[in-house]
Design brief:
Length: 356
């Protein structure tokens, strides 16, 4: 098969790779029809995730068709169209029994494109397939469905739910990339009083407004004063970090109010300073986390019912053979206005989609 293979920091290639096979009775082999690129993949290429070994196929999000299952798999079968989750779950360990699938100690967790070969390929082996795939309804398109593999549950669980968004809250989302925009979308399920989006790219700030942000702010122009003015000097009830750099995390800790919550979603490759000399007296709660994907079934139903309009998050689409072009587009959003980039098995899907 063809696959995107990681060769070390800054190096990857669209290569011929061995076809995956069943290695365990709980496995399934899925023909990948649509995959996508995540900000975490960029962190891997920057060398921020040293656990990824050279030779690994990247990617942890996919929609496709089951072509083979192990002897222990009963809930899905060849021919089924499924969503492949970014998190695999053994279903038996202590953490899986608490629905903390991201912390699975039975061989799951975030393994695809991290510890084992991933989804940016023509085929992928999915471990613990019954717990790690979701059957898809016929009416849901691939580009909407693939967003449920990672960014929607990540933004919802690690940002909105861990941040404890409540009716009337002022929510500041730092970073209006795909994860930040998904946080803006899902925060609205809890009727916050206002949502403030902070970014550097004008196209992403415009996307944030169209997806529900009430106010947008340029990160380079001191958004602390804007938040102060909007809240009569109190600060944000919830600050969601959706970038993964020290400056964005530290900004969240500056704009949050006493008794507020900082929810860190971003993948950090460098240390951030925790200013306890300022925070210790403010009763601030800081949460971090890897997504568990326990919310995926609920989010699937909401997208299918039209309660979450996600189609505008996908701005560009390519055939698999142009995956290097797709990475270039995705990694330069200030120039390309890219949000989420879809990669399709069929080149006929290739297009530049309408901008949000």
């Amino acid at each position: 098969m063809r696959a995107l293979v990681y060769h070390g920091p800054g190096e990857s290639s669209w290569d011929t790779a061995p076809d995956p096979g069943i290695e365990d009775a709980a496995d399934a082999i899925v023909r990948v029809d649509t995959t996508t690129i995540c900000g975490t993949d960029l962190h891997i290429l920057e060398g921020d995730v040293p656990e990824v070994r050279p030779g690994t196929v990247l990617g942890h999000e996919a929609v496709g068709e089951v072509v083979e299952v192990g002897g222990g798999v009963r809930a899905i079968r060849p021919g089924d169209r499924v969503l492949v989750s970014c998190i695999s779950a053994c279903g038996r360990c202590r953490f899986c029994r608490q629905a903390m699938y991201g912390q699975c100690r039975g061989g799951g967790g975030w393994v695809l494109g991290h510890l084992i070969n991933g989804t940016q390929a023509e085929y992928v082996r999915v471990p613990f397939a019954e717990m790690s795939t979701y059957p898809l309804m016929g009416g849901m398109g691939d580009e909407a469905a693939v967003l449920l593999a990672d960014i929607l549950p990540t933004a919802y669980e690690v940002g909105v739910l861990k941040g404890g968004v409540r009716p009337g809250d002022t929510v500041v989302v730092v970073g209006a990339g795909p994860i930040g925009l998904a946080a803006i979308l899902t925060a609205q399920l809890y009727s916050p009083g206002r949502i403030v989006a902070v970014d550097l790219a004008p196209a992403r700030m415009e996307a944030a407004k169209q997806l529900g942000a009430d106010v947008v702010a340029d990160a380079a122009q001191g958004p602390e004063q804007l938040v102060d003015d909007l809240t009569d000097g109190l600060g944000a009830d919830v600050a969601i970090e959706a970038v993964g750099v020290p400056e964005s995390f530290e900004l969240c800790t500056r704009v949050v109010r006493p008794g507020g919550r900082v929810a860190n979603i971003g993948v950090h490759g460098r240390s951030a300073t925790l200013h306890l000399e300022d925070l210790w007296i403010k009763d601030v709660t800081i949460s971090t986390g890897l997504v568990d994907t326990y919310s995926t079934p609920d989010l699937l139903r909401m997208v299918a019912a039209g309660r979450l309009q996600v189609s505008s998050l996908v701005t560009h689409a390519f055939g698999f053979d142009r995956i290097k072009d797709a990475y270039d587009v995705f990694s330069h959003p200030a120039d390309t206005a890219a949000l989420k980039v879809a990669l399709h098995r069929e080149p006929s899907h290739e297009s530049l989609l309408p901008q949000p």
